[in-house]
Amino acid sequence: MLRPGKLITRNSLNITFNRRTMLIGGAQGLVGAILAGRMAYISIVENERYKMLSESNRVNLTLIPPRRGWIIDRNGKPLANNKADFRVDLIPQRVRDVEGTISQLGNILKMTPDAIDDLRAAMKDARGLQPVPVASGLTYEDFAALSVRLPDLPGVAPQRGFSRQYPTGAAVGHLLGYVGIANAEEYEENKNPLLITPGFKIGKDGLEKYFEPQLQGKPGARKVEVTARGKIVRELGVQEDVPGKPLKLTIDGGLQEFVARRMGRESGAAAVIDCQTGGILAFSSMPSFDPNSFSDGIGRLEYAMLSQDERVPLLNKATRGLYPPGSTLKPMAAVACLQHGVDPEETVNCPGGYRLGNRFYQCLGRHGPVNMVRAIEKSCNTYFYAQAHRLGYDKIAMVAREMGLGEDFDLAGLNQRYGTIPDSEWKMRKYKQAWTASDSLNAVIGQGYVIVNPLQLAVMTARLASGRKLYPHLIPDDKVAPTLPYPPEHLAVAQLGMAQVVSQGTAARSKLPLDGIAMAGKTGTAQVRGFGSGSRGGAGVPWKYRDHGLFVCFAPVEQPLYAAAVVIEHGLGGSRAAAPVAKDFMTYMFDPQKAMDSLLAMEAAWGGDIQQRMAAEFALFRARAEGRVPEAPSEEAAD
Amino acid sequence: MLAFVPRPVAELPWQIILITVAIAGFGVIVLYSAAGGSVSPWAGIHALRFVVFLTMALVIRLFSENFVKWATFPAYAVFAVLLLLVELAGAVKGGSQRWIELGFIRLQPSEFMKPLVVLAIARFYEMLPIGQARSWSAIWPPLVLIGVPWFLVMTQPDLGTSIAVMTGGVTVMFLAGVPLRLFVGAGLAGAAFIPFAFFFLLKEYQQNRVLTFLDPESDPLGTGYHISQSKIAIGSGGIGGKGYLQGSQSHLDYLPEGHTDFVFATMAEEWGLIGGLFVIVMFGLLLRWATMVSLNAPSRFGKLAGGGLTMVIFFYIAINLLMVMGLAPVVGIPLPFLSYGGSSMMTIMICIGLLMGIERNTRQNGGAGRLAP
């Protein structure tokens, strides 16, 4: 018994029942009131918030990548533009069966086995919503075939859009850089959703990277109504993209391409500068990479080929290649001598070298008595040894710097290595040693501690030729360069010496094949092996120990319009390797047709133009990588 | 009633019929929209089922109280055995099994158990001598009557139905006068039991649902998705709704189960707070009618059964609405007359039919102790 003593009757049970029923009824009413209140709260107080959530469910905003601004040359000709493109990307987070999707894509798009391998590797590292490019430049048929099968291939995002195109390919690789898909770190920086929009690319190197803000443009957007499963119900509206602004360069597109092609199979660099403004007309480092391949996401195999090449196609030699300038500095040294009172008519006897203490410094020939102009023309070391010994190199170094050597120029996005113009203070600081006369002798003929990049050589020549302190630039400006602090008659001596180099001196074989237009220049041969080691880097040694060939020049002699520098790595000598290249591109500036005709003849002998040769090299590399062709005997062994 | 209406028609419980027709009719309208503006697959069948089950309820109404009393225990026994069979079939096949395939119909014994437990316990207390109403012998047999089906349903596992079975039975015990402190004690014991039940009786998906309910943000794409999408649908409807056939949450498939468990959210998106209050008020009227029926019943069986059946109906409504508004975990209990689905409508209609029978019995007996409706 639970509670004995209390009388239980039918009536008392009924009263209990009624009471408890009322209690339950009241509780139920309370629940009803809570429900009504809760609903009112959700639908009135929180209405705005849930309306927004409902809209963001329903409406899917797809960004349309903006068309990138064109990069154009001084005449408005495109160096980089955009082509309409069908492309496919994979969104890693949405892919369910990676292996299956990749193999299906391979079938539908007829991808090559190494492209499939690349895709597989890329997917392995991919995370989240970062798109992984599968293929671009699809035909409409492939695009359509893929679009039909989309429901079975979650995560595959085909797209019609625009992609970056560099019409002259490798010729502008080092100049413009390339574009590519933003990487995870770049996305983490500001979480801009545009960065993970399939098909969107940002500048990754060179001018493309430096001028990214200007070139990027503003994305458009497509508003669509979608179901929970991502099926598009209807389009709600489209806002067009705003293309990026075009970027105009001082480059002459035709010359840029010509120079790159004329470099042929050599490894080297060239820069051409407008002698009136300092604007860079051409800027080339070869061999190069094709920025079109980089922008599509370069294949591993192609990248391996580029990075294993001993000619270092991935290095921009025009600004990052440092070379002993050799005799190309002699005209500049002549100006320094004049500056310090040397009479240009004074002669120095060249018995084939110069004795300093118990060492004999070689000249390239026995020139007999030479004055300053003739010393330049014949590239007589003895004359300059004597002058450097007399003046000391510090005085020459000051002029060298005034001419732009050793200078880090303010050039948009171009990473430079600016080398060394040594002097006594520099040597003391760096080596804790006093400057010696021997150092002066080495430095004056552009050896020893002297090391510069090809762009600096072109600037030096442009300044010598114009008499003005021109600054190299890629973006046109109206700034008028100040004149150099040297009397014009001093510069005229150096200019005359350079004119005679081409007319009758060391580069006599490289006269311009034009009536009434002559070129002035100076050859240079820089030793790769230590100077004075006794072994010259002639034709009999392996490629990588051969001497570099250099040439600086300007034209026309009387009224200089263009100045240039050419470096051909391991080209054996300036007159042999570099001057002919300069001759041809200078010819192009005055008679493009004539220059092009001779180039086409040369290319036929080289095995096609740049693109054809690169394709052939790649095919060979691929065959070797797959073990179909045995490794060719190395050039060293063949020599 | 008008004089020319024949007596059997005039005597029909029009009040409750109109309430159910109003709710179920609204359900048809909502399901038409849920199907994207189409009678098939849901709205048409829903209307047809309602007519069939309403007819069934009116037939049940005609059962005499004595017949119901007589049939209670045998029916309880039959369905307890069927529940066991379902359980065994599930054990053989693996996984959870809730119905018996009879060929023409899928029989879900647990549905019948909800009213049957109520009837059985009401019958037990009616048979119990009045003097023992507060003794131990008034407590343990009902606990067995509840416990057996509760255990079988729980292990199916069907959390919602097992709680419904228990709630109906316990309500009858409460109404029968079992001392209050026992309920308080049981409540405390139950609270202590919850951790055990959570870790040992619930399957993983059920545990997740409870966890998600406690912290919906923890899993916005998994189990929490149901609740957040339901709240978005209700909240975005505002006061007047987005307009009929204009609900984006339901039509674009963001709202899961928009025609069954979450039909209220489908409705609220298009009809807003006004539609929601209409539904709540209609259910309120239905429960008020059911409560009056039990209060007015002359017999102890009628009173207790009526109270228990009212609670079964209330349980469906309350749990479903609490769930869609994010106040209860997702337990898979449909909303009477609005959710598409035969079993639940049948259960509710059996309850309403029985309540109608009790009311008819009251009228025939002159309404002893009748309170104003």
From TrEMBL, chain A:
GO terms for cellular component: plasma membrane. The keyword Protease applies. It is found in: Cell membrane; Membrane. InterPro entries: Beta-lactam/transpept (IPR050515), Beta-lactam/transpept-like (IPR012338), PBP_dimer (IPR005311), PBP_dimer_sf (IPR036138), PCN-bd_Tpept (IPR001460), Penicillin-binding_protein_2 (IPR017790). SUPFAM superfamilies: beta-lactamase/transpeptidase-like, Penicillin binding protein dimerisation domain. Pfam families: PBP_dimer (PF03717), Transpeptidase (PF00905). One of its GO terms (molecular function) is serine-type D-Ala-D-Ala carboxypeptidase activity. Keywords: Carboxypeptidase, Cell inner membrane, Cell membrane, Cell shape, Cell wall biogenesis/degradation, Hydrolase, Membrane, Peptidoglycan synthesis, Protease, Transferase, Transmembrane, Transmembrane helix. Gene3D superfamilies: DD-peptidase/beta-lactamase superfamily, Penicillin-binding protein 2a (Domain 2), Penicillin-binding protein 2a, domain 3. It is a single-pass membrane protein. The chain crosses the membrane at residues 21-41. Residues 268-586 form the Penicillin-binding protein transpeptidase domain. Residues 64-236 form the Penicillin-binding protein dimerisation domain. GO terms for biological process: cell wall organization; peptidoglycan biosynthetic process; proteolysis; regulation of cell shape. PANTHER family: PEPTIDOGLYCAN D,D-TRANSPEPTIDASE, PEPTIDOGLYCAN D,D-TRANSPEPTIDASE MRDA. This is Peptidoglycan glycosyltransferase. It comes from Blastomonas natatoria.
TrEMBL record, chain B:
Belongs to the SEDS family. MrdB/RodA subfamily. Peptidoglycan polymerase that is essential for cell wall elongation. The gene is mrdB. Keywords: Cell inner membrane, Cell membrane, Cell shape, Cell wall biogenesis/degradation, Glycosyltransferase, Membrane, Peptidoglycan synthesis, Transferase, Transmembrane, Transmembrane helix. InterPro entries: Cell_cycle_FtsW-rel_CS (IPR018365), FtsW/RodA (IPR001182), RodA/MrdB (IPR011923). One of its GO terms (cellular component) is plasma membrane. Pathway: Cell wall biogenesis; peptidoglycan biosynthesis. The lineage of its organism: Bacteria, Pseudomonadati, Pseudomonadota, Alphaproteobacteria, Sphingomonadales. Its EC number is 2.4.99.28. Its main location: membrane. Pfam families: FTSW_RODA_SPOVE (PF01098). It is found in: Cell inner membrane; Membrane. This is Peptidoglycan glycosyltransferase MrdB. The chain crosses the membrane at residues 12-35, 47-64, 70-92, 133-153, 159-176, 183-202, 271-290, 311-331, 337-358. One of its GO terms (molecular function) is lipid-linked peptidoglycan transporter activity. It is a multi-pass membrane protein. The keyword S-adenosyl-L-methionine does not apply. PROSITE patterns: FTSW_RODA_SPOVE. GO terms for biological process: cell division; cell wall organization; peptidoglycan biosynthetic process; regulation of cell shape. It catalyses: [GlcNAc-(1->4)-Mur2Ac(oyl-L-Ala-gamma-D-Glu-L-Lys-D-Ala-D-Ala)](n)-di-trans,octa-cis-undecaprenyl diphosphate + beta-D-GlcNAc-(1->4)-Mur2Ac(oyl-L-Ala-gamma-D-Glu-L-Lys-D-Ala-D-Ala)-di-trans,octa-cis-undecaprenyl diphosphate = [GlcNAc-(1->4)-Mur2Ac(oyl-L-Ala-gamma-D-Glu-L-Lys-D-Ala-D-Ala)](n+1)-di-trans,octa-cis-undecaprenyl diphosphate + di-trans,octa-cis-undecaprenyl diphosphate + H(+).
